[in-house]
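User: Reviewer 2 asked us to show a designed sequence for the structure in our supplementary figure. I'm pasting the structure tokens here. Could you produce the per-position amino acids so we can include them in the response letter?
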């Protein structure tokens, strides 16, 4: 009777040892896999450069306006161009009135976007996103 108790105890210790070794091996394999495949590759296996965000893009979760809304169209018109746009062009592209464009610019500035106004001579002021 005492021989079977000792064998059960030894079997239990062996099972614990095997499970600990398996967990350790699994962790090592996971680390090696993560080190080898943590980067994105191109079509031929070359490592890709990190994606650079476009001018004015702050991230999806930080925008308070909906995709496709007039304010989003206004932001997209300002953010996608390197040169400035006047109020009439912004109103035409966003589908807003000129007064609503002024309010939209004020709202975007309140959300933290740096929109600058370029005034030169007698021509209309041009609005663009500061880079």
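Assistant: Here is a per-position design you can include in the supplement:
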């Amino acid at each position: 009777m005492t021989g079977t108790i000792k064998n059960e105890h030894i079997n239990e210790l062996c099972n614990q040892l095997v499970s600990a070794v398996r967990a350790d091996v699994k962790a090592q394999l996971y680390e090696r896999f993560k080190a080898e495949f943590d980067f994105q590759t191109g079509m031929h296996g070359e490592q890709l450069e990190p994606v650079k965000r476009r001018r004015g893009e702050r991230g999806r979760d930080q925008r308070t306006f909906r995709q496709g809304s007039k304010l989003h169209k206004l932001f997209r018109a300002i953010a996608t161009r390197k040169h400035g746009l006047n109020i009439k062009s912004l109103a035409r592209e966003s589908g807003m009135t000129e007064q609503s464009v002024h309010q939209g610019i004020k709202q975007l500035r309140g959300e933290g976007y740096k929109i600058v106004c370029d005034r030169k001579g007698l021509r209309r002021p041009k609005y663009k996103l500061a880079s």
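For the response letter, you might also mention the following. The domain at 60-129 is CATH 1.10.10.10 (Arc Repressor Mutant, subunit A). Residues 31 and 37 are 10 Å apart (CA to CA).
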